[in-house]
From TrEMBL:
GO MF, one annotated term: RNA binding
Record keywords: Mitochondrion
Domain of life: Eukaryota
A Pfam entry, by short name: FAST_1
A biological process from GO: regulation of mitochondrial mRNA stability
InterPro entries given in the database record: FAST_2, FAST_kinase, FAST_Leu-rich, RAP
PANTHER family (alphabetical): FAST LEU-RICH DOMAIN-CONTAINING, LD32258P
Residues in RAP domain copies: 574-632
Name the UniProt record assigns to this protein: RAP domain-containing protein
Location, primary (coarse class): mitochondrion
């Protein structure tokens, strides 16, 4: 099969070179669909992209079916970025014709609508909510099916629909469809739909749907019908969260255990996702009873799959996402899979997106893998969309990694973000600016644009229509504060005001925790006081201008002796930061970008920064060792003195 596909690809390349396909839209579409088959899609990205670009001038004249075929390929590969505007213009043309009275099947209407919204500006979400409500009003049990409902749920999730009446109607329709559905695969698509919907909107429950699914699973388990491993995984996924019958739940868990050698990576991800949802429920009796057992089974499945093929990129990506959900990245199989990315022969925007998510979640720095991503961005800059450019840039900042060919990489990313800026969320744009500031590459145009009333109003409008009011606005506000602080300190020539003092004052309480709650700083303080010999020279929980928190500040005179913090003889102040393991990257170990940035700013304030690693401290067994450790924090040996900033070039 592989040899046949290679010959086929060579023929396609030859035809493209000789321009034999330039006037054959139908042939190009069929070629793209074949090359985009999931089993080998990642090996054919460049050829698929070339085929799409041949059709670029024809996109606006394509039929609905042809346009949706191209969009499906684009959505799964997220390339080439050059055609995104053309695709959305083509989709917009067909949607306008529908508004003017053109008759079209509901499924096609929804697919066109989803093609319009997924890469559009977040500021348009309020309008899109009204549009989808209008389309949804035409939905009834006579014109919806499984595919319609899955597409609708994805749209609802993306534009954050939370209206109770719409949710009730949607799941009433789903219940009606699932009752008459005969295709088992479709039943489980709708079941998974409910799990994802309920995760997006935790306050909503449709108990009639849950009751029907419980009865369906019970009937299947008690019958003599053959149940596939994928069905068993779906049974368990649903029952862990919505199961009412403990005996039935136990039976499903046992059936799952009996089939561990037959499951695939997607089954692991499905069950892992349910365990995460279960943790958010108030009644965690099931979690306590089954969590360890299910986790052990998932680890067994992972090891079985890796024994069969440890170099399957698609499989490993899914297994790593499962491990991230279970917070099980310390397992040796997860570490091996992370390292395996170094051997990956192919790269694409979608692969890069997955790498960014996995390495960001794992806090893992493997330079060879990050360099593969940045090199791909440089060599394929026209095909990269702004979302992915921002993701790899922020990953470099998060891991504090200065990539090879950095100058080219940063310039390509800046150009791409400027091109696609209107499509980026406020948080994405702020994160890209913060990352560029960390690497001393922040363009003046970004500063002048962000710190304006117009941009702040735009940000407020986006947050007003935000769905996750408890998390997303806080992430935006915190990122804006960090950027405001960094620009004030590192780009004073732009006279950007510091307007987050009140915000910083509000979160001070976060740092002022009772000593009794934290053993690490309490014990460190005891030894610091003993070594310093001057309690007034050791100050705890210091908040600097611009809101940085310092665990301990030691004041020294010119002779290096500890003096009272308010003494006129203070010549130098040592800022001691206590860093736990999560502050460091894995594999290639150093402080993450956030902490290196903080060190740099503290040095700008005049502090000499010393870092106390929790992992080093806990390995010290004797008082003499701990006294020496603490002494080195105050009077570090020159050879050991480092704040971890070596990976970022000076401005």
């Amino acid at each position: 099969m592989k040899e046949t596909l290679c010959r086929y690809k060579e023929e396609v390349k030859l035809f493209l070179k000789e321009q034999k396909l330039h006037n054959s839209n139908s042939a190009l579409l069929k070629i793209r669909m074949l090359l985009n088959y999931p089993q080998w899609r990642h090996e054919n990205i460049s050829l698929i992209t070339e085929c799409i670009l041949v059709l670029r001038e024809e996109i606006n004249s394509l039929s609905v079916n042809e346009l949706l075929m191209i969009y499906e390929v684009f959505f799964k590969n997220q390339e080439p970025g050059e055609v995104l505007c053309d695709l959305q213009r083509g989709v917009g043309k067909h949607l306008k014709q529908i508004d003017e009275g053109e008759n079209i099947h509901l499924d096609k209407h929804l697919m066109l609508f989803s093609a319009l919204i997924y890469f559009s500006s977040p500021i348009n979400k309020m309008k899109y909510r009204k549009d989808i409500e209008h389309i949804f009003n035409d939905c009834s049990k006579d014109n919806v099916n499984c595919h319609t409902l899955v597409t609708l749920r994805k749209i609802f999730s993306f534009i954050k629909i939370s209206d109770q009446k719409i949710c009730e109607k949607f799941w009433d329709l789903t219940l009606d469809v699932i009752k008459r559905e005969t295709n088992v695969s479709n039943i489980w698509k709708l079941c998974n739909n409910y799990l994802k919907f309920n995760t997006d909107l935790a306050s909503f429950r449709h108990y009639e749907f849950e009751k029907w699914m419980n009865n369906y699973i019970q009937n299947k388990m008690s019958s003599y019908e053959f149940i596939t491993p994928t069905e068993v995984a779906s049974f368990l996924s649903f029952m862990l969260v919505y199961g009412k019958n403990e005996k039935l739940i136990s039976a499903v868990v046992d059936r799952f255990e009996a089939n561990t050698s037959q499951f695939q990576a997607a089954d692991c991800l499905k069950v892992s996702y349910s365990l995460v949802v279960l943790k958010t429920n108030q009644d965690n009796f099931l979690l306590q009873k089954y969590e360890k057992k299910v986790k052990r089974m998932l680890n067994d499945i992972t090891e079985n799959l890796l024994q069969y093929n440890e170099s399957d990129y698609e499989q490993n990506t899914v297994l790593l996402k499962s491990a991230i959900l279970l917070n099980d990245l310390d397992h040796h199989t997860a570490e091996n899979m992370l390292v395996k990315y170094k051997e990956m022969e192919h790269m694409s925007s979608k692969i890069m997106e997955n790498i960014c998510f996995i390495y960001l979640s794992a806090g893992s720095l493997i330079p060879e893998v990050v360099n593969k991503c940045t090199e791909y961005v440089i060599n394929n800059h026209q095909n990269i969309i702004g979302f992915n450019a921002e993701k790899i840039l922020f990953l470099c900042y998060y891991l504090a990694y200065y990539p090879i060919n950095a100058e080219k990489f940063f310039q390509v990313v800046i150009d791409t973000i400027i091109r696609d800026q209107e499509r980026l969320s406020g948080l994405s744009f702020l994160q890209s600016a913060l990352a560029l500031c960390f690497f001393n590459k922040l363009p003046s145009s970004f500063i002048k644009q962000i710190f304006t009333v117009e941009f702040m109003d735009k940000l407020d409008a986006e947050l007003a229509g935000c769905y996750s009011r408890e998390t997303y606005p806080q992430r935006v506000r915190n990122c804006l504060m960090q950027l405001n602080r960094a620009v004030c300190l590192e780009y004073p020539e732009y006279n950007v005001p510091w307007f987050h003092k009140k915000y910083v004052d509000e979160i001070k309480i976060k740092y002022m925790r009772p000593e009794s709650e934290i053993l690490f700083p309490l014990r460190i303080k005891d030894y610091l006081t003993e070594v310093a010999g001057n309690a007034g020279g050791v100050v705890e929980n210091v908040i600097t201008p611009y809101g940085y928190h310092i665990d301990f500040v030691i004041s020294l005179n010119k002779s290096g002796e500890v003096v009272h913090c308010e003494s006129r003889d203070v010549h130098k102040r040592v800022a001691i930061l206590l860093l736990r393991p999560y502050c460091y990257t894995r594999f290639y170990t150093h402080p993450k970008g956030k902490y290196q940035h903080k060190n740099r700013h503290l040095e700008m304030f005049g502090y000499e920064v010393s870092i106390a690693k929790f992992t080093e401290w806990v390995n010290l067994l004797y008082a003499e060792e701990r006294l020496e450790f603490v002494s080195n924090l105050i009077w570090p040996k020159k050879i050991e003195k480092s704040t971890g900033n070596s990976n970022v070039k000076n401005r």
